[in-house]
């Protein structure tokens, strides 16, 4: 088993939480894991990217080469396209469909969607709307994780367990909100 994942988005969108949940699930499976440090501006509004590599065999490098990513999980559609050269030909993009317009020359969404439509395997969801409609506005990132579950090759119940461990100290309401978000994302991947 080997899965190379690029996590990307904008600071403050929950990229590190997704990485922590995936990492926790992988470690409980006794898999090897390497994560490159987060690149970009971690304060709210700056672009953020991280490499996460999971394998049943030892991993030599924490960086994913061009054409080597199996999955790009992106909290922002333009950021998904930024890392497209890293995606392998059979790889998956799981992205939010809602732009985070933080620059004056943000591309038109028709152009972004046309470029995303050129990719073989794409799941694009309005995670912000789904999160708000379901009363879990702070869990949009975990909806995206749920949609990525099959592409990641991690069993759904392992991600649920990881959410319980990662968010357990924050209380049962936070845990349940994120479990609900994961289920919404899983349903959307169909």
Structural commentary:
The protein starts with a strand and ends with a helix. Strands 1, 2, 3, 4, 5, 6 and 7 form a seven-stranded mixed beta sheet that branches. Helix 1 (15-28) packs across helix 6 (156-167) and helix 5 (140-152) packs across helix 7. With 190 residues, the chain is an alpha/beta fold. Helix content is 41%, strand content 24%. The model has no long low-confidence stretch (mean pLDDT 92). The chain is built from seven helices and seven strands; from the N terminus they run βαββββαβαβαααα.
The shape, in one word, is globular
Strand content: 15-25%
Number of strands: 7
- H/E series: EHEEEEHEHEHHHH
Structural class: alpha/beta
Largest sheet: 7 strands, mixed
Q: Taking Cα atoms only, what radius of gyration do you get, to the nearest Å?
A: 15 Å
